[in-house]
Amino acid sequence: VVSGSTQPPPGMIVWLLLTFTALAESSFQTRRSHSCPDLCSCSLTASGANVLCNQSSLTYFPEHGLPPNTTHLSFQGTQLSNITAGHLSAVPFLTYLRLYYNNLTSLPPELPVVVSYLNELDLSGNQLVHLPPNVFSHASLYSSLTFLDLSWNRLTSIPATLLHKLPNLEVLDLSDNNLQELQEDTKSSFGVILSGNPWECDGKIEYLWKWLSDRLQNVFFLNEVTCGGPKALRDQQIVSLTETCGSAWAVQWLSLAADLFWMCLNISLFSLSLVSSFMLSVNISSCTHTLFL
Ligand SMILES: *[C@@H]1O[C@H](CO)[C@@H](O)[C@H](O)[C@H]1NC(C)=O
Ligand SMILES: *[C@@H]1O[C@H](CO)[C@@H](O)[C@H](O)[C@H]1NC(C)=O
Ligand SMILES: *[C@@H]1O[C@H](CO)[C@@H](O)[C@H](O)[C@H]1NC(C)=O
Ligand SMILES: *[C@@H]1O[C@H](CO)[C@@H](O)[C@H](O)[C@H]1NC(C)=O
Ligand SMILES: *[C@@H]1O[C@H](CO)[C@@H](O)[C@H](O)[C@H]1NC(C)=O
Ligand SMILES: *[C@@H]1O[C@H](CO)[C@@H](O)[C@H](O)[C@H]1NC(C)=O
Known about the structure:
Blueprint: H1 10-35, E1 40-45, E2 48-53, E3 70-76, H2 85-88, E4 96-100, H3 111-114, E5 120-122, E6 147-149, H4 160-164, E7 171-173, E8 191-193, E9 199-200, H5 205-214, E10 219-220, E11 227-229, H6 241-250, H7 258-269, H8 272-281, H9 284-291
Parallel strand pairs: 2-3, 3-4, 4-5, 5-6, 6-7, 7-8, 8-10, 9-11
Antiparallel strand pairs: 1-2
The structure holds 2-acetamido-2-deoxy-beta-D-glucopyranose (NAG) (6 copies).
């Protein structure tokens, strides 16, 4: 019996352990440096990779090193100012794209084509003024989008397709932009946030007024959907404009702006009860006079 001869000496075990540790560490680091861009942190989940880039020194989209199976990608508080279809084609399986408080001034029109499995798209806190007109017109590709956040940008208009080509949208946040009017033909049933915009309460506000009145349950912070102009109506809640009209019609001495007159007339045309109270309280002669001017 040769006891101990099959066992390696203790020094060898330590050496082997050290070698294995070093090898494992270096292979881990190589893999990490290959699969995660600089200035970002990556984590692997059962469904794919999560990538978070939140360093303010980041100014470019990291084209190299993004794990190809990235499903969640977030840029927060960076100086990223543009993003292209080419950038996004590196991450075709994205379901969650959060570009939150960066410096984006534009979006690639091909966005829905290159990332067609998106569930959530958060573009809040950027410098967007316009969206590409057809960015949301690839309806079938966008069937998965449920959440779209465009708040805290500088949007002055939104493409009509945004409101009726997203069949599964649950929440659309358009708050804190520069929107003055809403496009017509918006047959939507999702929840929407419209507060913090300078809605222009002239004759054309009738559409928004009716749209809001039809969707009281779906509009969050309804009381904060207010007029930015004209002066006489600033900060007035849009859903309560009929009350303003009622009192305006009653107070004969109030000199009404032409816009306000048309707005009230337009809104009252949608409500018979209001039309009748309007007929009772208005100074009929001045009304017909204005009408036939
Ligand atoms: C994602 O890719 C990494 C390597 O890049 C791999 O380790 C991981 O298993 C992949 N995950 C899935 C869900 O495919
Ligand atoms: C970036 O995100 C990580 C993880 O959430 C956090 O610990 C860190 O403080 C963030 N850094 C900045 C600059 O926000
Ligand atoms: C994107 O931003 C970078 C850095 O600010 C700039 O060098 C590049 O020209 C921009 N590309 C486009 C297409 O605007
Ligand atoms: C990003 O925006 C901030 C604040 O608006 C500005 O100070 C900074 O210069 C911008 N950076 C770039 C690269 O445009
Ligand atoms: C609403 O007012 C505008 C003027 O601002 C007018 O052109 C339009 O015909 C009006 N619509 C209705 C339905 O009265
Ligand atoms: C209301 O009608 C009277 C005459 O019936 C007129 O004197 C007055 O100026 C009118 N008021 C307004 C606000 O037009």
